[in-house]
Predict the structure.
Amino acid sequence: MQAVLLHKISPPRFLSPLTALRPLQKVSTPQAKIPRAVSLTKPDNNQVSISTPTTVQAEIDDSTAAFWDYQFLFVSQRSETTAPITLHLVDGAIPSDFPSGTYYLTGPGLFTDDHGSTVHPLDGHGYLRAFEFDGVTGEVKYMAKYVKTDAQVEEHDPQTDTWRFTHRGPFSVLKGGKKFGNTKVMKNVANTSVLKWGGKLLCLWEGGDPYEIESGTLDTIGQLQMMDGGDSLGKNSKDLWDVAAEMLKPILYGVFKMPPKRLLSHYKLDAPRNRLLTVSCNAEDMLLPRSNFTFYEFDSNFKLLNKQEFNILDHLMIHDWAFTDTHYILFANRVKLDVLGSMTAVSGLSPMISALSVNPSKPTSPVYLLPRFPNKSVGVRDWRVPVEAPSQMWLLHVGNAFELKDVDGNTEIQIHACSCSYEWFNFQNLFGYNWQSGRLDPSIMNLKESEYQLLPHLVQVSISLDVDGNCQKCTVEPLNQWKKSSDFPIINPTYSGQKTTCIYAATSLGTRRALPHFPFDTVVKLNVLTKSVQTWSVGTRRFIGEPIFVPKGVEEDDGYLLVIEYAVSIQRCYLIILNPKKIGEGDALVARLEVPRHLNFPLGFHGFWDNNTW
């Protein structure tokens, strides 16, 4: 069955390649043939071996090609499917033991409208992609639709199939719409993460309630209310900031239409307890030097089992977080109010996010260990006092966290995550987006060799607590000494919150001349027990997003990895199936399936594997 093409693919506005890539290293066109894909292994003895497949393809790797490759990773896709499409298998075969189920992937789908406005990738309307695996027939079917949020419905005219952006969004400034005095800031685009829980398929964003989706059709049902008040810990009386908060509420809630609470887009699944864990924060805390976080725990039927609020006297911006059997863990990404930026943001002359800037005033990173079950907590530790990690880092994403107790009652907590430097992180320049020109500059994501350590990379944070909960030691080190630019750490989800051996992530080997660090082109597998590192690379002028683990057995690495290959040089997307046990070997690739060219889609953010089909 074929989809109806609703509109042609439209690229974003471009800088001149010669102008845009001046910060990048000047390179020459390689003369030798470049392998299309490689597998690389870094064993315990640090010797590196490379296996090269027989299929090779000579492709240009210079700054001009790199510029256009980067732009086409963020090409607007206006088409939607009207019925499932069976994907064409171009390499390998679907394994007979591949589980039936659905891989959901969300991310932005639209970056430009028809009236001259361009938005930041984080403000792009949510575009939900679904890949259904039939374990009986071995077929994979594909569907994709926009999440019909309130903003999407307002900005898209289905009669003419045209778009006019009316909402600013937190990261953008409109050019072809209302600019000065535009109070439509909180543009819930439902584009960040996706979840199937309690029979409900949800698309989440960082600033409001999730949108529920009909899994069989990908039609939007509407918003799902998941937030309300909580049992407050750490607050017994009102202070100056409570008064300030009360003054801000009418402005934020009334004028800017912000919801009282922001549900974070990152959730956690407690596999042993079969619980969904979520967290929200208060809207006014974005502008105040204090933070309120409410944690919720739901059973498999979406019944609320546990809810509590924590008040922290620090100005924090949390995107992802961790949990263990007894703790919620927050890494204090510290921010501060930018007075001048606030004035221009409120007036509509700059993005709303310019009201904030990072706060690198402390040389350490506070880590808050919050009790999941205060009535059952052992020890006298005051959770208000953070553990100070001996490294200043901005936490981006968490792969897993767990805790181990010894016979004396001492606790060892380990967190495997991705972090970057405060010096590099900039709210306004994420993905290289320039809000003044509405364009993308890949050089911002690809620093020179002497500065690449500032970019996102994998870390292991270890915290040792005595029997009373007092911190005895805290260390931060590169995970398995892998120091290359990396992000999107994931594990076998059935081991979430438990001790794990294998971590998977997206990374770059650093071999590209013009885009050495981002976008990612490699899946890396790290064994924290043996300290080994194995990689599988998608090849030249091809990129990947977040990998997803599909469990199928009892062993931790028994299953398959799914990842999208973005072959931007030929404007194609492929669904890749890898064997986790074979990463680092020549036969790691299990299958490659092709998405029809007219449905080629931009870079996705986060995905979810559901054991159910449509």
Summary: The chain has one domain: 55-230+241-610. The helical segments are 17-20, 63-72, 150-155, 240-255, 339-347. Confidence is low (pLDDT under 50) at residues 1-59.
